[in-house]
């Protein structure tokens, strides 16, 4: 009985220490919705004046990712914080998303919350964020998101 209890305890400990699931942005889109149009990066137009900045709300989320520990690489668009520390931000798939071009659809935006804050990064720095993902819509002043992430780690990628 003691061996069984010890084995069970060890397996639970290993499960708790398991690596987060590493996601690419396309992984946030249901497989049935993946096609060449939804996976192409958005390009900056030559004339900002002629462009609509409305967000497309097309696409759905992947409910099976709810409450998963994940790792995702992207760029920070600050929402709350100051020049030293950010407590909330949008994690976006490319530089300039939500700032210079229309926001990507909600299934390509993650609202990240670090209650204690993390150091502020430059908008052009790629970061890796780890935390627990929730499939949950969130309305921010910049866009609607389809996912929220309770941040646990953030690291700037070195060029």
What does this structure look like?
- This protein has 159 residues and is mainly β.
- The protein has a domain of 111 residues: Protein of unknown function (DUF3299) (OB fold (Dihydrolipoamide Acetyltransferase, E2P)), CATH 2.40.50.870.
- Helix content is 12%, strand content 39%.
- The chain contains 2 helices and 6 strands, in the order αβαβββββ.
- The chain has a 5-stranded mixed beta barrel with strand order 2-3-4-6-5.
- It is globular.
- The chain starts with a helix and ends with a strand.
- About 11% of the residues have low confidence.
Largest sheet: 5 strands, mixed, barrel
Which strand order does the major sheet show?
2-3-4-6-5
- Rg: 18 Å
The global form is globular
CATH superfamily of one domain: Protein of unknown function (DUF3299)
Q: Could you name the CATH class of one domain?
A: Mainly Beta
Report the uncertain regions: 4-9, 38-48
Mean pLDDT: 84
Beta-strand proportion: 35-45%
The total count of strands amounts to: 6
């Amino acid at each position: 009985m003691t061996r069984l209890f010890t084995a069970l305890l060890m397996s639970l400990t290993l499960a708790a220490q398991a690596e987060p699931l590493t996601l690419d942005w396309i992984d946030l889109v249901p497989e049935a919705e993946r096609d060449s149009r939804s996976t192409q990066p958005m390009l900056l137009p030559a004339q900002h004046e002629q462009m609509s900045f409305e967000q497309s709300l097309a696409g759905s989320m992947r409910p099976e990712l709810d409450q998963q520990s994940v790792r995702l690489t992207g760029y920070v668009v600050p929402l709350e914080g100051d020049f030293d520390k950010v407590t909330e931000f949008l994690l976006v798939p490319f530089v300039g998303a939500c700032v210079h071009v229309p926001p990507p659809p909600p299934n390509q935006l993650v609202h990240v919350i670090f209650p204690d804050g993390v150091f502020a990064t430059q908008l052009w720095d790629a970061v890796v964020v780890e935390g627990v993902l929730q499939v949950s819509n969130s309305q921010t002043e910049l866009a609607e998101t389809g996912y929220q992430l309770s941040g646990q780690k953030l690291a700037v990628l070195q060029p």
